[in-house]
């Protein structure tokens, strides 16, 4: 019912995070890239080049709106001004998908520009579910909620991340965005098994997959500590997890995320091509 | 303090201990793990300020700017997730930042850079056909109100701020004297352009922007070159409408 107004769905093919420096390349030859994702907050100005480019691209490609500033995991209420801006953007653009993160970024009016972690408890579950329901109600469409990359745990957590996400999806009807790189980063950082995470994930809820690059470091004890940097190619172990994901859950719209040290279009299109071959081996 | 309040405070203050209740695998300490979040917040907000203030950055040097940006983001974290508008408090912050006080023009340079950013994201508008203005009888013109484009910004400075901006962004010669400059920002399509206003024109434009009729605005202004000012406005599509009662 919530999806009734949307024109299009994302195709089960590769997409990329849109960067303005690729505008001309995309229009000339998008290659294997079948859809584009934008960060909602970058298109909340009143006019000018960003909105003109977006209107142009939206005539040619399905667009996914990915929010990074809603702070759905925040202790406080959602920002009504920001909800209004999202509603406005989703209203005129009519995107094929809207997604946000299981994380918080704003506290008492200060926006910290990072996807910050929260403990998984009955109390936080109730709060996040209420926020997701409020977002879906306000913007009038079903949203996807993304699993985070995390670097630490909370001693008060009472349940695992998958149970937490699945229960939010059950209570609100939202879909899930499975970020396979985040799975690899978080499981490595928690010293748990990423393949087991993919095995147990509720794939029937997944509306979109994210793939991105990470950096490697060490924690206080010298253990591997991966950082979700979105600044390089997708790592080989993440491609393997992605193959496992497609085997279990079937082909899903798959985004290549590359937000820092953004490469030329050919490099990004090549990453999308690698995803395309996994999504549809017959076409490769 | 709530758990997220504690988390936020420690993110913005490296001297505070890691919040309680955080852990690495097998109950090991999470200090370096928490520092990843600290670093993400500081680095990403510093980068947002670097992008917003290229000329301030060029004037003070990269190293000083990063110290300045970190002090600024700790005192004034963004008030909204629209990072393209982050830095509204930078001019006031520069006025109060002791190490920057010797460069008295810095706050106005920051104001110019903020105004350019606002202009870039302002709503689009169609320019007025200049013939509509030319066709008016003098008394109708004086009684008319002019609506300016949403991307227009006016900035008055006691410093040669546009000359400083041009020296850094366009390789122009740096100003030799401390002359006041009035600056008009217009946006013909997508790229805002700051221009020097003829002396005295700023008072006229301030009155027009405030909704005054052309006649009243002229009364507010001293002697200035009206023809040159109107040509500049019309050439760059800065006037979008003409209201005659």
In short:
The complex is a heterodimer of chains A (about 280) and B (about 240). With about 280 residues, chain A is of the alpha/beta class. Chain A has a single domain, classed as Divalent-metal-dependent TIM barrel enzymes (TIM Barrel, Alpha-Beta Barrel), CATH 3.20.20.
Features:
heterodimer, A: 284 residues, alpha/beta, TIM Barrel, eight-stranded parallel barrel, two-stranded antiparallel sheet, 9 helices, 13 strands, 38% helix, globular, B: 245 residues, mainly alpha, 2 domains, three-stranded antiparallel sheet, 50% helix
Can you walk me through this structure?
- The complex is a heterodimer of chains A (284) and B (245).
- Chain A contains nine helices and 13 strands.
- Chain A has 284 residues and is an alpha/beta fold.
- In chain A, a hairpin with a 5-residue loop joins strand 11 and strand 12 (224-227).
- In chain A, helix 4 (122-139) crosses helix 5.
- Chain B has 245 residues and is mainly alpha-helical.
- Chain B folds into two domains: 1-103, no CATH class; 123-245, no CATH class.
- Chain B has twelve helices and six strands.
- In chain B, a hairpin with a 4-residue loop joins strand 4 (181-187) and strand 5 (192-196).
- The longest helix of chain B has 22 residues, at 31-52.
- Chains A and B meet through helix 2, helix 3, strand 5, strand 6 and strand 8 of A and helix 1, strand 1 and helix 2 of B.
- Strand 8 (153-154) of chain A pairs antiparallel with strand 1 of chain B, so a sheet runs across the interface.
Strand order of the largest sheet of chain A: 1-2-3-4-7-9-10-13
Q: In percent terms, what proportion of residues of chain B is strand?
A: 5-15%
Instruction: Give me the strand/helix succession of chain B.
Output: HEHHHHHHHEEHEEHHHE
Profile the largest sheet of chain B. 3 strands, antiparallel
């Amino acid at each position: 019912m919530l999806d009734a107004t949307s024109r299009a769905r994302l195709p089960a093919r590769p997409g990329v995070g849109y960067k303005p420096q690729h505008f001309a390349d995309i229009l000339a030859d998008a290659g294997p890239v079948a859809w584009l994702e934008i960060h909602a907050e970058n298109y909340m100005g009143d006019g000018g080049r960003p909105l003109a480019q977006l209107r142009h691209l939206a005539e040619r490609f399905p667009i996914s709106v990915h929010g990074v500033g809603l702070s759905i995991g925040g202790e406080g209420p959602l920002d009504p001004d920001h909800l209004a801006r999202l509603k406005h953007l989703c209203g005129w653009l009519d995107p094929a998908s809207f997604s946000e993160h299981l994380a918080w970024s704003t506290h008492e009016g200060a926006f910290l520009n990072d996807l910050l972690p929260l403990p998984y408890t009955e109390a936080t579950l109730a709060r996040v579910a209420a926020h997701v329901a409020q977002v879906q109600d306000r913007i009038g469409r079903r949203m996807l909620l993304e699993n985070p990359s995390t670097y630490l745990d909370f001693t008060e957590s009472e349940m695992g991340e998958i149970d937490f996400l699945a229960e939010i999806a059950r209570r609100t009807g939202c879909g899930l965005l499975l970020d396979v790189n985040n799975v690899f980063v978080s499981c490595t950082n928690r010293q748990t098994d990423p393949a087991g995470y993919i095995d147990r994930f509720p794939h029937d809820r997944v509306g979109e997959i994210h793939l991105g690059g990470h950096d490697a470091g060490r924690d206080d004890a010298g253990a591997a500590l991966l950082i979700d940097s979105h600044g390089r190619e997708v790592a080989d172990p993440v491609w393997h997890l992605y193959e496992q994901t497609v085997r279990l859950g079937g082909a899903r719209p798959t985004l290549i995320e590359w937000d820092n040290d953004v490469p030329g279009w050919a490099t990004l299109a090549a990453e999308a091509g690698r995803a395309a071959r996994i999504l549809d081996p017959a076409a490769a | 303090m709530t758990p997220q309040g504690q988390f936020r405070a420690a993110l913005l203050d490296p001297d505070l201990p890691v919040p309680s209740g955080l852990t690495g695998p097998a109950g090991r300490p999470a200090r370096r793990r928490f520092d990843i979040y600290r670093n993400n917040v500081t680095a990403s907000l510093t980068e947002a300020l670097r992008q917003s203030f290229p000329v301030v950055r060029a004037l003070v040097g990269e190293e000083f700017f990063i110290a300045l940006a970190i002090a600024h983001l700790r005192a004034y974290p963004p008030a909204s997730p629209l990072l393209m508008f982050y830095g509204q408090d930078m001019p006031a912050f520069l006025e109060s930042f002791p190490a920057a006080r010797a460069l008295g023009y810095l706050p106005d340079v920051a104001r110019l850079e903020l105004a350019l950013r606002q202009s870039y994201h302002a709503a689009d508008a169609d320019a007025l056909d200049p013939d509509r203005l030319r066709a008016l009888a003098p008394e109708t013109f004086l009684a008319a109100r002019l609506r300016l484009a949403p991307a227009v910004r006016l900035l008055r400075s006691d410093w040669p701020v546009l000359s400083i901006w041009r020296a850094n962004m366009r390789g122009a010669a740096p100003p030799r004297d401390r002359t006041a400059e009035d600056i008009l920002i217009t946006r013909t399509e997508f790229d805002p352009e700051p221009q020097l206003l003829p002396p005295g024109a700023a008072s006229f434009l301030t009155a027009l922007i405030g909704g005054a009729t052309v006649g009243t605005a002229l009364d507010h202004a001293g002697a200035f070159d009206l023809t040159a000012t109107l040509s500049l406005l019309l050439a760059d599509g800065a006037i979008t409408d003409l209201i005659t009662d």
